[in-house]
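Q: Structure tokens for this one, please.
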Amino acid sequence: MRQAKRLFYIVILNIIISAITVGVVLQLWEKDHPPIYAESTPVVIIVTATESGILPIYGNEVASGTLAPVDTGIIITGTLQAVPTIEMLTYRVKEGDFLGALAAQFNISVADIVAVNSLTDPNSLIVGQIIYIPTAPLPSATSTSIPPTIVASATPRPSATTTHGPITTSTPTIVGQEAQVVIDKVIGAGALENERIVLLRTGNGELSLAGWRLTDGQGNDYIFPQLTLYKDGAININSRTGQNSVVDLFWCLPSSVWSSGKLVSIYDAQNNLRATYTVP
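A: Here is the predicted structure, written as tokens:
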């Protein structure tokens, strides 16, 4: 009897030890093998429409397998048209992102990005926020057309890397009625690795910045290379060294150039003052 009781205790102890061991192993496994989530999924926007008509309302009574309408129904109106399908990308906002730069990078208008994401304030993006980027301009809709429906696909697709709209600290000044470039802000003033100027494009048509000059008025001048900005486009002028791209230009300075109170000025190729900004 005593031997059977001892055997029973040994079995219970083994079960407890086994359960603890399994729990520890699972925790270590989850720590070393975190779940992998798809960064983004392609999205399809489908604009549907229907003809005007009357939708009958049916009662709950069923006789001989048929339904009888109990009211004349509700009038449904809409514009009969083709159903366009537009593919979109999902994008995760990161530090320093803003809609103007995203629009220039993806060759789409800020208005289309605002429309598909129902943004009330284009400058209030949050780091980590997921937004939709259309791959083509949105179709124009009539006042009676039915609003588009966004349908997400289950197939993962690599996302673009970028979005958080920096908080505007000062109101930019545009010089003259013909100016079509705005100095939106200076970010990271005094820190070479982060220091950059954000330029925004305003107005219609194309604007070539080739030969334009950015200056601090104290002998530090940056001459723009061959570059064309389109409506709602944007570009960053980084003080540090780097490789130029469609959204970033690099001044290649040995040290930072901007500080609070300094005046940023831009002159066109004919040496006409086009825009100014005072670093806050």
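A few notes: The radius of gyration is 30 Å. DSSP finds three helices and 18 strands in the chain.
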